[in-house]
Amino acid sequence: MDFDRVLEKCGSFGRFQFVILILYGYTNILSSLHYFSQTLITFTPEHWCSHDDLHGLSADSIRSIYSNITQPSCTLLDGVINGTGIAAEEETCQDWIFERESGYESLTTELKWVCDKSHQPAVGQSFFFVGSVVGTITFGYLSDRIGRLPTMLMATLAGASGDFMTSFVHTLPWFAFSRFVSGLSTDTMYYLMYILVFEYLSPKRRTFGLNIILAFFYCFGLMTSPWVAIWIGNWRHYLWLASLPALGVLAYPLFICESAQWLLTKKKYDRAVKCLKWVAKFNGRQVEDSVFDEFVKHYREKMNEERKLNSNEDTFMGMFRTPRLRRFTLTLLLKSVIITLSYDVINRNMEGLGTSPFKLFSFTSINYLPAGCTILLLQNIIGRKGMACGALLVGGIITTVTGFLIAFMDPKENALLLAIMIGLGRYGSTVAYDAEIQYAAEIIPTSVRGSAVSNIHVIGLASSSLAFYVIYLAKFYKPLPSIFISCLMFFGAGLCLTLPETLHKKLPENLADGERFAMNEGCLYFPCFNKRRESLAPNCDNKSDA
Question: Which value, in Å, is the radius of gyration of the alpha carbons in the chain?
Answer without folding.
Answer: 26
